[in-house]
Amino acid sequence: SNFVLGNAQVQSLYPIVYCSDGFCELTGYARAELMQKSCACNFLYGPETSDRLTGQIQSALDDRREFKTELVFYKKGGTQFWCLLDIVPIKNEKGEVVLFLVSHKDITDNKKDQDEEQCPELDEETGLEVHKVTRPQGFNANRRRSRAVLYQLSGHLQKQDKSKLKINNNMFGEKPPIPEYKVAAIQKSRFILLHYGTFKAGWDWLILLATFYVAVTVPYNVCFTVVGGRDDITPRNPPSVSDILVEILFMLDILLNFRTTFVSTSGQVVYDARSICVHYVTTWLFVDLIAALPFDLLYAFNVSVYFGVHLLKTVRLLRLLRLLQKLERYSQYSAVVLTLLMSMFALLAHWMACVWYFIGRCEIENNTRGSWDIGWLHELAKRLDTPYFLSPITSLLPDSLRPNNLDGLNGTVSQWNSTSSDIVGQDSSAANSTQWNGTGAGSTDEVLSGGPSVRSSYVTSLYFALSSLTSVGFGNVSANTDSEKIFSICTMLIG
């Protein structure tokens, strides 16, 4: 029970990867003190430790061969003891030596008995050695019993055929083979994926990238593409190839999770297909189903073409909950954890930038245009020399409804407001933009146009979010309204 396991893959050092409780009691060292030290146990060497034997120990480790010897070791407190050292290499299923089993046995008492036997007692008068011949109690009875057993065995052996009396050469000649420790064969279906396999690891990283893509694009589309006034007057573009690929990846991930092993609460890997399905249904299936709904395919059926689709896509952010599960798996890799934490911080800043722009647009929407100009977007527009201005509503009308002269503008506007449902069928984007710009404007024949571009607005929003999260801001992008100030306070508290 007094042994240590050394890693044979690390040349010359062979660090200890495990030590038994008996070895700790024998040497007086704690387990934490022994970890990563050499399994040659050079920390037990002392003045009377043979240099020749220590060299043989190191040579046996380098040659990866079995070795046994007796030498003097020293405990942590300095106490000397004789130790029977036995080194046994351990091979894996490929025949490679991966570990060293180094056993230690305290033979100090045996050495003392041998020393006493080597010093015989002398007679005081003659000076001759005195050998005491003593027989234990029941010696004669034991001798008769042993003689009977030998007689019976000899008679039994004489009846055996000589061809069967073959002695195993390994018993007296060659050394016994080195024990091989192999991984038990896994009994599983070929359609079951291992959760620790190479393919599953690569697939998880691909899904992680897709999740970050969703976490970046969905808030941006909701706050900038949909809410942006000038982007509303154009029809919704068809879904991009990347969006469709992400939806396909999420669907395939659900199918793979139904055939992927998992670790049970008892620490065993579950390979049964039925148990895997039950476990997945009761854990992550609902979240994955919500995130994998093909919202972009709804565009073909003209369902919630504008604002609704982007809002529904926000439920895909639930996939970020799976990231917490992977953080525990990669917690031992500091570089991976640092990268994920930096990515999460950048993602948080991106979300804050989207909300900051959304607040600015809502402030413009809820106040009278033309006279109200205290929002941060107005301040940015003044600095960039791209101010907001009122433009005629005819600029938003389709060509078939645009009047030839300004005298018919009022009639056209009345027709626009009264037959909005018909206009939606002809050009739904113009109707949507007119409805948004008509809110709180006080006039139905003019809309607000101009202002900074979406790119400038996003860069400024991201700059404000990062400066507020990492410090208290620099004042060049400041909050002016109550809503903006409340959001700024929350951002600084989070930072």
TrEMBL record:
Pfam families: Ion_trans, PAS_9. The chain crosses the membrane at residues 284-312, 333-359. GO terms for cellular component: monoatomic ion channel complex; plasma membrane. It catalyses: K(+)(in) = K(+)(out). One of its GO terms (molecular function) is voltage-gated potassium channel activity. Its main location: membrane. Residues 67-119 form the PAC domain. It is a multi-pass membrane protein. Residues 421-451 are annotated as: Disordered. Residues 421-438 have a biased composition (Polar residues). Keywords: Glycoprotein, Ion channel, Ion transport, Membrane, Potassium, Potassium channel, Potassium transport, Transmembrane, Transmembrane helix, Transport, Voltage-gated channel. It comes from the Eukaryota. Residues 16-64 form the PAS domain. One of its GO terms (biological process) is regulation of membrane potential. It is found in: Membrane. CDD domains: PAS (cd00130). PANTHER family: POTASSIUM VOLTAGE-GATED CHANNEL SUBFAMILY H MEMBER 3 ISOFORM X1, VOLTAGE AND LIGAND GATED POTASSIUM CHANNEL. This is Potassium voltage-gated channel subfamily H member 8-like. It comes from Clarias magur (Asian catfish).
